[in-house]
DNA sequence: TTCGGGGTAGAGTGATCGCTCTACTTGCGT
DNA sequence: ACGCAAGTAGAGCGATCACTCTACCCCGAA
């Protein structure tokens, strides 16, 4: 990945996160990317490609933020993951999950739906491994997704509720 | 609400549910509503009003589907609510929550954000009352939201995971 | 010194969009 | 019988959109 490409991807992610996927015109995206229209189209030959580039950037940054350097103890790791999802929402995603937003804006795109599925599957699998809750991966996904959607409405109270839910789940598994 | 208005609202809801909020043109919406362009604009004077009319219709139908005629026993009611969310997803919302989709398509609209908040607050409050879990309303919202988001990825396995989570929550509350 | 790859600036194009307007029809109360 | 409210059909308008194209600049290697 060239320097120009990563600069473009970061700018596109910022623009779509701010304005959603429907509204920003290609000119707005160009300004956010900080390159000329010709260069933007060279690296991302259509607006749809710009969306994909932004999501790829988002995917890597999200995984990094939530899963890098977790504590070894599985219960500590569980609480850390949920708290980090909260800080991610606060700093980056006050409007909600960007992948769901992309699918919502164009629900009939198979490419976007596959991208969403891949992203969530990797999140769930990494969370299951770090928390030691592999036998309840779907429950874990429900908690993380629920927290992501409830955070815009309840803020940190949603984080605490998610942590209590995860604790109850762990207890119920013995 | 006149006959024409409810026919329009039902058609608009169908059109936005199928195509998302960004893509369908007003001509497509007119076809879905089954009226002339002039009549459509008489009842919903702008495309934004068409979105609001569709969401209002959705709100009523969703509450009806999930909460009408629940069993009295709180544990049965809990399972029934989560199962009904699953059947709702299967029949009506295979692309995800329509309210989140609307906000995602236009994340800077205060009107839409307020609408989303009102909808989710009413869902959470009705769920808390029916399940007897008023002290854990936020946890309940996390479960319902998590189920809604996880269903497109895992189908009925998400419903079962949500039911297990709700059970663990009830046990942990004593 | 020259030349080519990779960048900028920005005008232009055809299509599509939200929305309005004119002209006509239909059904009902008096 | 008549008038009016409420509907249909669809052409037209101005703005905006995604995308292309021309013309130019800069810099490092041969």
Short description:
Two copies of one chain form a homodimer. The first copy, chain A, has about 170 residues and is mainly alpha-helical.
Overview of the molecule:
The structure is a homodimer of 174-residue chains. In chain A, helix 1 (3-19) crosses helix 2. Chain A contains 9 helices and no strands. The mean pLDDT of chain A is 96. By secondary structure, chain A is mainly alpha-helical. The longest helix of chain A has 22 residues, at 110-131. Chain A has 2 domains: 1-55, Arc Repressor Mutant, subunit A (Orthogonal Bundle); 69-174, no CATH class. Helix content of chain A is 79%, strand content 0%.
For the terminal residues of chain A, how far apart are their CA atoms?
46 Å
Total count of helical runs of at least 4 residues of chain A: 9
Mean pLDDT of chain A: 96
Most extensive interface: pair and counts?
A: A-B, 46 and 46 residues
- The total of beta strands of chain A comes to 0
Give the radius of gyration of chain A: 17 Å
- Quaternary arrangement of the chains shown? homodimer
Structural class of chain A: mainly alpha
What is the total number of structural domains of chain A?
2
User: How much of the polypeptide of chain A forms β-strand, as a percent range?
Assistant: under 5%
Uncertain runs of chain A are none
**Major beta-sheet overview of chain A:** none
Order of helices and strands of chain A: HHHHHHHHH
DSSP helix fraction of chain A: over 70%
Tertiary shape of chain A? elongated
């Amino acid at each position: 990945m060239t320097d120009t490409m990563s600069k473009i991807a970061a700018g596109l992610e910022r623009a779509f996160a701010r304005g959603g996927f429907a509204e920003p015109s290609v000119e707005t995206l160009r300004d956010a990317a900080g390159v000329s229209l010709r260069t933007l189209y060279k690296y991302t030959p259509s607006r749809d490609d710009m969306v994909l580039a932004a999501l790829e950037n988002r995917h890597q940054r999200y995984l990094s933020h939530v899963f890098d350097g977790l504590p070894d103890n599985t219960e500590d790791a569980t609480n850390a993951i949920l708290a980090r999802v909260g800080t991610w929402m606060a700093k980056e995603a006050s409007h909600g999950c960007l992948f769901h937003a992309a699918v919502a804006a164009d629900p009939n795109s198979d490419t976007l739906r596959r991208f969403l599925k891949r992203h969530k599957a990797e999140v769930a699998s990494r969370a299951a491994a770090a928390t030691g809750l592999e036998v309840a991966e779907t429950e874990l996904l429900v908690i993380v997704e629920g927290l992501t959607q409830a955070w815009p409405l309840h803020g940190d109270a949603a984080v605490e509720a998610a942590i209590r839910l995860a604790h109850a789940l762990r207890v119920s598994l013995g």
